[in-house]
Amino acid sequence: MTDIPFLSLAIWIPIFGGVLVLATGPDSNARMARMAALLTAILGFAVTIPLYLYFDRNTAEMQFGGGEEPLLWIEHFKVYYRLGIDGISLWFVLLNSFMTIIVVIAGWESTQKRVAQYMAAFLIMSGLMNGIFSALDGVLFYVFFEASLIPLYLIIGVWGGPNRVYAAFKFFLFTLAGSLLLLLAIIYLFNLTGSFDILVWHKAGVPANAQTLIFFAFLVAFGVKVPMWPIHTWLPDAHVEAPTGGSVVLAAIALKLGAYGFIRFALPIVPAACEDYRWLVVGLSLVAVVYIGFVALAQTDMKKLVAYSSVSHMGFVTLGFFLFNQLGIEGALIQMISHGFVSGAMFLCIGVLYDRVHSRQIGDYGGVVNTMPKFAAFFMLFAMANAGLPATSGFVGEFTVILGAMQVHFLIAFLAATTLILGAAYTLWMYKRVVFGEVANEKVAGLTDINRREFFFLSLLALCVLAMGLYPFPFTEVMHASVNHLVEQVNGKMLTLPSH
Amino acid sequence: MDMKTLLLVPLAPLAGAIIAGLFGRQIGRVGAHCVAIAGVLVSFIISVMVFQSLEAGEQINDGTVYTWMQIGSLTFEIGFLIDQLSAVMMLVVSFVSLMVHIYTIGYMSEDPGYQRFFSYISLFTFAMLMLVMSNNFLQLFFGWEAVGLVSYLLIGFWYKRPTAIYANLKAFLVNRVGDFGFLLGIALIVAYAGSLAYTDVLSEQGAKQLFEKAADPWFTAICICLFIGAMGKSAQVPLHVWLPDSMEGPTPISALIHAATMVTAGIFMVARMSPLFELSEVALTFVLVVGATTALFMGFLGIVQNDIKRVVAYSTLSQLGYMTVALGVSAYSVAMFHLTTHAFFKALLFLGAGSVIIGMHHDQDMRNMGGLRKYMPITWITSLIGSLALIGTPFFSGFYSKDSIIEAVHASSIPGAGYALFCVLVGVFVTAFYSFRMYFLVFHGKERFGKAHEEGHGDGHGEEHHGLAPGQKPHESPWVVTLPLILLAIPSVVIGYCMIGPLLSDEKGWFGASIFVSGNHVAVLAGIRETLSQGGAFGMALHGLMTPPFWLALAGVVTAWVFYIYKPELPAAIRRKFAGLHTVLENKYYFDRFNEIVFAGGARALGNGLWRNGEQKLIDGVGVSGSSGLVKLLARATGLFQTGYLYQYAFTMIVGVFVLLTFWVFFGWAGR
Q1: To 5 degrees, how large is the angle CA B505–CA B509–CA B514?
Q2: How distant, in Å, are the alpha carbons of A161, A248, A249, A455, B599 from that of A348?
Q3: What is the rounded distance in angstroms from the CA atom of residue B118 to the CA atom of residue B104?
Q4: pTM of the entire predicted model
Q5: Is B197 helix (H, G, I), strand (E, B) or coil?
Q6: In this model, does residue B460 exceed pLDDT 50?
Q7: How far is C-alpha B170 from the chain's CA centre?
Q8: What's the rounded Cα separation, in Å, for the pair A135 and A172?
Q9: What is the rounded CA–CA span in Å between residue B12 and residue B36?
Q10: Which helix (H) or strand (E) holds B62?
Q11: Least Cα separation, residue A125 to chain B (angstroms)
Q12: By the CB < 8 Å criterion, does A147 face chain B?
């Protein structure tokens, strides 16, 4: 089984499928475009399932690389089409392919304009994201990394809200600025090692003074994507203007790219600099958790609120990585997966309301439970998951990261744990104002409860959230070898390299 | 007991909750309550069996159900530890829950959310049982937060009421403050002990190792963090503020969650952690002082309440304070004892109050009641029994547990014991006074009902409370309501008498190894043991008739009688005389106002400030727009050179060549 190139399939099926969907053309063929998109998405997810089933849990080596010698791409620079996943990237390929199905279903009716292009953009992006998570060649990674910006830029810019052009530009420029620094770092690493193989870079032993520069290049490049405070302000704007599907992909997948970059590039390649500037990343992460928690409290726009809560939750991810212990890193990875489900679900819930009322303002709602009881139940579950309630996925990552933080310093754990209060405060306060109470206005009075399609995708996500909360064992089981290896790599190198 | 049978204890109510919740419409009302009650009944029966098997000397169960997660050497498990401590809790929880389930059939009969309600209370029973049966900190925290969730859902059960949805958010957030401390405590334990399992941390050996590894400021910090969790859940000052407001929920859950079970989770948890707390005198003192403060000062507040449920709520706060005091003086078994007796008589009092509320057509204001004993005889007698048990009348259950607490405090020598003794003794008078104030106002005196449409009913509840219209009379509640009252009245009378012998007679006590008391603290219960060995439980009650607590309680009852039956005009006169004090009490020592302004308002203001100044002005204004403005400025500046005039370009070139040449001549070429 392992000689079937599952990774290539996971990348190219959605991309080619997306092109095919594009070919259906005008909106008169919208039905066909939707069906084709759904089929592609399902097929794209199906080919990733063997990745989990046949994953070798006992090794930290890259798997599913397909054969001995990777395909040569650009001979002169020794750029290869080199793929492979380990226990860290496995989940993101799965998560991405899964969320694509959800996004296609979610956009089924709410998108009526340029349906084929809309669906194609999501499918192509899904393929590119899989490329990012499985690329083992620096250039290949960079190409996927940059290319993925384009569909998202279009999604926001074409199907977005009234201020979409500003938001799309802001999003594009922020991330592009970061990417240029990444390119510099990649070129430096090529000059140093004579290879674009990421695994070679892991063993390169970058000189100490260069480590610092490369670390900051990575920090900006990936920090923008996470996004870390204070380079996060593109995210709320992008979310607010993006269509529901765009927000879902943005939160569930696109934000993971930055965090993934940290763990694939920064930690193993420049461990000494990571150690030196650990205080900085931990500090910024804690600012994200605490400061952004308060900012989220002040939001009156539901999407902005969830966007800020995303920033706060992603703070846990960067915090966990830079704790340099297994609890922290695995906790952060779990948090990433969970955040994919939970924030995706939160944006979908807001989308459900937006489709009906065409407002994201908290003040325009109130008493939704009276007219939409089923929706209220789902929304409650996801709100609780967002607040990190045990038995939901939201708890697992936060809990583990806090345990990891306590092994480093009480104060870090203390500040991180404030999310228990802040997260509950902003999420449930919003929930209270939107869902509870008497019917606030005529629009709310006229709401219809979720239909079957909405029920379907919300229950899929609800199952994921609960399954991960009740039994995270299978999720972490596949990570151990890779994370162990990473922790050894990082801590080992930190000891041997002279610190300055 | 094998694991599979034990698994049924929490899972049966969970199944009930899921069926009633998801398929409520299909199975209908009768179906929903049958399923839910069947689930809890299974739990109760197995709990009885567990209890009996422990009595018969069966081995203590400690086993894993499944491995939840594994990271490095740290194992996260779901598992059960069934020893005397959890067995008692299982019994109390499943019994009170069963009573409340039955009672709900009557109380909620007209509510459109009938099935949902059953689903919630069964879910609560599941969560609470998971909490008490846990064999590790993870599951403890799971249950801990899960009961908080159900409490949130149930306080806000009537989600249209602004007060209810305010109260449930408040309850959840205040509890989260406690959980914040609790989580830090657990994280500290993991950091130092490297395990989440009770066997590794709470064994005598494990506790000692933790004590040595963590060393003192941190070991005490662990205990205090854990206790902060207990303060949230068990509503100790200053985290008590959510409990009175939680009365916005339907009365059955006030009985089940906010009196008998969930709020005692903190007490149970500290008793479970006794091996840790025993090693830190500072933490014990902290526990003691907080408990004593709660016991007395929350009692005072019970005096000025007019809402019948709020009186019982403040009484619950005060009694939780008593339990905490017992924990503070290392009398863990006595705390558990009071927890048990309190669960019965307080559930009884709440359900009795609920029955009164049904009779009064959902009017909760005691000023509109009076003379109800004629109309509601069963409710009257059972409430009287509950009140007598609460104030510690000899031979009633509350006497044995409360007197034991007072004795233990008296015998204790840890710092703060003097203050605690003062608080618990004055507390006895206060308890008797507010209890019988309520009793007299509701069941005796002039009939004041029948003016529902003449005026509002105070306490800001407005039109949600219907009340009795002129000419209407209250009526006794149906049997599904009165049966639980009777079934709860029985243990409220006898359970203390039955339990105290086995519980406290010998040094190890009935709880055995499930509670650990270090050598120098064992003595606090010596006095009670001596009394018991001389005359048994009966002798203790006789002896109790001649001790100060009894006289204080009697004085409280008599004062209440004088104030509310003999000279009803007296309270108003006193209120006028001590207007300042009354205002303070009326405003609950301004805790709510303080929290609202400082914490809630402060957080909102901080959030708004950061949003306006940090996000919009600084980062987006200066940072983002600033740099884009800078780029624009530079572009415009360089754009100035692009004039299109050849002579300007030529001139610029000449100047440039001149500058470069100068540079070359005087400084040499850079890099040479």
Answers
A1: 170
A2: 16, 7, 11, 11, 32
A3: 8
A4: 0.91
A5: strand
A6: no
A7: 13
A8: 22
A9: 9
A10: strand B61-71
A11: 27
A12: no
Express each pLDDT in B245-295 by its tens digit.
999 889 889 888 888 889 999 999 999 999 999 988 999 999 999 999 999
Residue A335, phi-psi category: left (phi > 0), alpha (psi -120 to 50), beta (remainder): alpha
Distance, in Å, from the CA atom of B182 to the CA atom of A202, rounded to the nearest integer, reads 40
Asked if the C-beta of A58 comes within 8 angstroms of chain B's C-beta atoms, the answer is no
B655 token code pair: 């100047």
Rounded to an integer, what distance in angstroms lies between the CA atom of residue B146 and that of residue B131? 9
Residue in A164, A308, A179 with CA at minimum distance from that of residue A235: A308
Beta pairing, strands A71-74 & A79-81: antiparallel
Distance from the Cα of A396 to chain B's closest Cα (Å) equals 9
SS3 at position A391: coil
Which amino acid, residue A372?
M
pLDDT tens-place string over residues B556-592: 999 999 988 888 888 888 888 888 888 888 888 888 8
B187 vs A299, A326, A413: nearest CB: A413
Compute the average pLDDT of residues A224-245.
88
Name the residue among B72, B269, B188, B176 with its Cα closest to residue A402.
B188
Question: Touching check for B249 and chain A: CB below 8 Å?
Answer: no
pLDDT of B509 reads 79
What number of CA atoms fall less than 13 Å from residue A84's CA on the CB side? 24
Cβ contact A22:A116 at 8 Å: yes
What are residue B365's phi and psi, to 5 degrees?
-85, 120
Element (H, E) at A144: helix A138-147
What number of C-beta contacts closer than 8 Å exist between A and B?
Answer: 132
> Cα separation of B392 and B401, whole Å?
8
Among B610, B579, B573, B288, residue whose Cα is nearest residue B417: B288
Three-state SS at A499:
coil
The ipTM is 0.91
A34-87: per-residue pLDDT in tens? Answer: 888 899 999 999 999 988 888 888 888 888 876 667 788 888 888 888 888 888
Half-sphere exposure of B256 (CA within 13 A, CB side): 34
Give the mean model confidence (pLDDT) for residues B216-232.
Answer: 91
Q: Is B130 on the interface with A (CB under 8 A)?
A: no
Whether B360 contacts B466, CB under 8 Å? no
- Residue to mutate among B25, B65, B68, B69, with most A CBs inside 10 A, is B69
Beta strands in B109-191 (DSSP E): none
Instruction: Measure the CA–CA gap between B512 and B499, rounded to whole angstroms.
Output: 14
DSSP string, B441-467: HHHSS----S-TTTS--STT-GGG---
**Cβ contacts of residue A27 below 8 Å, gap of 6+?**
A112, A113, A114, A115, A116
DSSP state of B617: I
SS3 at position B1:
coil
**B337 touches B397 (CB < 8 A):** no
CA–CA min distance A470, chain B (Å): 7
Of residues B621, B592, B593, the one with CA closest to residue B171: B592
Residue type, position B57, single letter: G
